[in-house]
Structures are given as C-alpha cells and as structure tokens.
Write a structure and sequence with these properties.
This protein is 80% helix and 0% strand. By secondary structure, it is mainly alpha-helical.
Length: 130
C-alpha cells in the first residue's frame, strides 16, 4: 500500500461530501428566500443574505481544500498545515454538534458528529503517514 493512500482516499471522499452538502444547502437557501420574496414577506434579509453566502462560500472552500489538499501532503510544510486544518475543522464541527444538541434533530446532529470524527481521523492518518 502506497504512502498516504488512505489519507488521500478519505480526504477526497470527505471533500466531496462537504461540497455536496454545501451545494444542497445553498440550493435550499436560495429556494426558501425566493419563495419568501414571492409570497410577499416583509422581512429585510439583505444583510443576512450576505452573511449566509459568506458562510456557504467558506464551507465550500474548506471542502475544496480538504479534497484537493490531500494530494499535497507529501510536502512537509503542507502536511503540517493540513493536519492543523483537519484538527481545526474537526473541533469546529464538534463544537457545532454540542451547540446544536436538540435543535436540529438526532439525524443531522449525528451526521455532524460523524463528519467531526472523520476530520479527526484524516488528521491522524496524515500524521501517521498512512
């Protein structure tokens, strides 16, 4: 088995999952806001729309960085950055899991926890050069 083969596989799968989730949430967000405007909602959403789009862009960028960045882990500097990045995203998802406890439903909370565990696993595998 080649060096970093498992890390690259998990990185690509995890990156694809994050990108698909981001695109799905973005589509649902745009559908919901357009339906709200079509039905004559009086809520001003221009400042919230910018903030939400920035969050969607940053989550999508982290998915691209997770997937494409797994091919650069053979370089020492990038490997250290990638390990830190995976651990940071893992901690952020773990905090999101604990903050949203009871608010999103058990299925979505479990999926957030699984993504957090996968990011921790990815960071561990990169560190162990597997």
């Amino acid at each position: 088995m080649g060096k970093y083969r498992m890390s690259k596989t998990i990185g690509m799968i995890l990156g694809a999952i994050i990108i698909i989730v981001t695109l799905g949430y973005g589509l649902l967000y745009l559908l919901g806001t357009s339906l709200g405007k079509a039905l004559g909602s009086q809520i001003e959403t221009t400042s919230r729309e910018k903030f939400t789009l920035i969050i969607l862009f940053s989550i999508g960028l982290s998915g691209v960085l997770t997937g494409a960045g797994s091919y650069g882990i053979k370089f020492k500097g990038w490997r250290y950055f990638y390990i830190g990045f995976c651990m940071l995203i893992g901690v952020a998802l773990l905090l999101t899991f604990f903050i949203s406890r009871g608010a999103l439903g058990t299925t979505f909370e479990f999926l957030i926890l699984c993504l957090s565990i996968l990011y921790f696993l990815l960071g561990y595998l990169v560190k162990k050069e597997k």
